Amino acid sequence: MTKKQTAVFKIVLTGLDKDPRALLARSLRGLGHEISENLALEEALKLLGRTSYDLLVVDIDRLEMDLSDLLKTCKRTSKEAAIVLVGSGIEVETAFEAARLGAYKCLSKPIELERMLDVVDRALDGARLRREAGSVRQIVVGYRQADRFVVGKSDLMQKIAEVIEKVSASGASTVLIQGDSGTGKELVAKAIHFLGDTMDRPFMEINCSSLPENLLESELFGYEKGAFTDAKKSKQGLVELAEGGTLFLDEIGEMPLSLQSKLLRLIETKRFRRIGGVKDIEVSTRIMAATNRDLRKAKDQGKFRDDLYFRLMVIPIYVPALRERKEDIPILASFFIDYFNQELNRSVRGLSREAQEVTMEYDWPGNVRELRNVIERAILLESKDLILPEHLPSDLQRGRAAHGSIPGSSRAEGVPISLKEAERRAVAEALSWAGGNKSKAARALGITRQTLRQKLKAYGMVNKYPPG
Known about the structure:
Elements: E1 10-14, H1 18-30, E2 34-39, H2 41-50, E3 55-59, H3 67-77, E4 82-87, H4 92-100, E5 105-108, H5 113-123, H6 125-135, E6 138-140, E7 148-150, H7 155-170, E8 174-178, H8 185-195, E9 203-207, H9 213-221, H10 238-241, E10 246-250, H11 257-269, E11 271-272, E12 281-282, E13 286-291, H12 295-300, H13 306-312, E14 316-318, H14 329-344, E15 350-351, H15 353-361, H16 367-382, E16 386-387, H17 394-402, H18 419-433, H19 438-445, H20 449-458
Parallel strand pairs: 1-2, 1-3, 3-4, 4-5, 8-13, 8-14, 9-10, 10-13, 15-16
Antiparallel strand pairs: 6-7, 11-12
Helix pairs in contact: 6-14, 7-8, 14-16, 18-19, 19-20
């Protein structure tokens, strides 16, 4: 663990023997954390309930209450705080039961300081991710958390955030949002709408691939009474219903050419006619469109109008696939965990470090939508406290296996590798074997912990195995 931390956490120590407690408290304060120590258990629990704390370390050797009651009380008092238990000769059954009831870790005495600092750092991972997610710019596009579009911390998404804010302020009349399925194109459109002056105006949307041409036209432009057999009365279309607001056309690449010409006229003149109508209707509706198709290619093939393409491309926004911004995965996962904890009345603290590694090694063909579904499934069906690798779908496990035991290794079997690559693999394998415990990995490699830190920095692995 490094001597300087940007994140400061609140930690409570209770029941520990004087000397190891003082040493641990001094070390943690040296890292910048706020420590409450030398507290009786009852006092510590009251403190936990009054103030938001991130970690509780409890010595259970002289515990006067049942361990299960203690853990239930802790979880009831503070759902967010991680719990680390220490004691003499903790049995396997006790450790399993403690884990089942929400304890992060059980450690048997005597405990080396480095080992304790490692455990504390890993226990704070959930709090660290929640804090990081809270500090990342989020664009609120509705009154429910489910309607938020989390921009993330990657450079790609921060640039999109800037574009969204500029477009929403400008009142631009046409926007084209491109990207793979599940990347959040609709949420980008909602963000633009709800951030600007149109936030109190209608937001109407339709999927252009979901209806046949005649029904799509009537849904968009409406019709007059008697326009066709079943037209018993006049009907407003979405273009009219979105007056002063936004009409969002999803899968615009699937719109028939005949309707594309009518859409172009609407964009250029702000006028249209209902089906069967004889007079123009003027509107001030903003048109935003989205597609996962290559519209340039469709244009060149004659499947999309040139003039409409260039009219929509006045303000293009490309939403990158999740595999292009993997640094956002922990932030998004934390966001969805918080959301589904509220929706499903759970108290999952986050992903274990091993589960997070699985999510980082997977390519996410379904993008953010797939990640959202994976987190919902894990919380609903599997996880009690931490989401573990076994709580994730088999597709993710196979994706990890496809990467080999050491992430990033893609050389064919039998092809020689450099000494530097061999060393990098050895470091990664040792850390994987040690469960991320740097002291244990360093001992296995026959090097000091400081040397291991230097090698992580040299091989660009610090983000994968952060200071701890």
